[in-house]
User: Fold SPTN4 protein from Jacana jacana.
Amino acid sequence: LLVSKDLGKHLLEVEDLLQKHGLLEADISAQTERVQALNAAALKFSELEGYQPCDPQIICNRVNHVQTCLEELGELAGKRRKELEDSRQLWAFFQEMEEAEAWIREKEQILATKTCGRDLSSVLTLTNKHKSMLGELGSRRALLHQSMKKGEQLLAKKRFSPGGIQEKMREVRLRWKKLEEVTGLHQERLQEALNFFQFSAETDDLVAWLQDTYRIVSSDDFGHDDYSTQALLRKHRAVVEEVEKHRAAVLALRKQLALLAPEHRQGVDVQIRVVEVEQLYGEVAEVAVLRQQWLQDAMAVYRMFSEVHACEVWVDEKEQWLEKMEVPEELDEVEV
Assistant:
């Protein structure tokens, strides 16, 4: 049993052999106590004085032989355990490699079927999932590093054929490298999609703001008096300031578009969208200038009306005074 060359063909078989070997070691340990007791009893016969049933030398030789056999058995058991433990390390290494390959295949299939989303919300969801996967990748990388270290230790022992170990390590390293490359490419695609949909969302927000602002600046309400027109002019100046602040965002659209991935920036729709935003901004800015001029004109008109009204009131007062004035009869009052 102890000189058997059967070291198992997979991890479960080696574990089973180790359990059986443990039972055998326990049996050897039990027999050791029995042999030691028998040897002690036998040596007493070699120490008898007078009548001796057997030559003392024969007894000593037999005891030494049995003791030597027992020690050899113990050495064989130790050697067998070491071989089985080494075999367990080997098959544990191969099992870890197979688990790593299975995990890599699973992630490769997931990455192969993954899309980059249809809108900003779906891209953000996929990006969060990809971050979780990167966390898994980091944990698995640490485990794989430990497994590779075990493989190097097995090679250093030189107890097994290095070919199978080296080949398996090479295969897993290549697959892992490919997985990291695919993961990196997918991350780049997600980032490109995220940039595109963020650009689209920002452009849509800008268009919505410009449309709302256009409705404001194209209003035909110029007030009904000096006070209301002044209030409208103050509001309009604030709108003009906002329009001017948005000029940089509109001008930056071309630069942002140039930074997008070719598949996104070369699309006809997105290029048309940028042109539409630029044209709409130009119209808003132009109409805003016109409205400001119209409000100023309205202000001038209402101020003129106010001054005319003041003149009319003064004229009315003087007319009433002149109409009511009576020519006095005395010289002093006439002169006054």
Residues 1-85 form a domain with the Methane Monooxygenase Hydroxylase; Chain G, domain 1 fold (CATH 1.20.58.60).
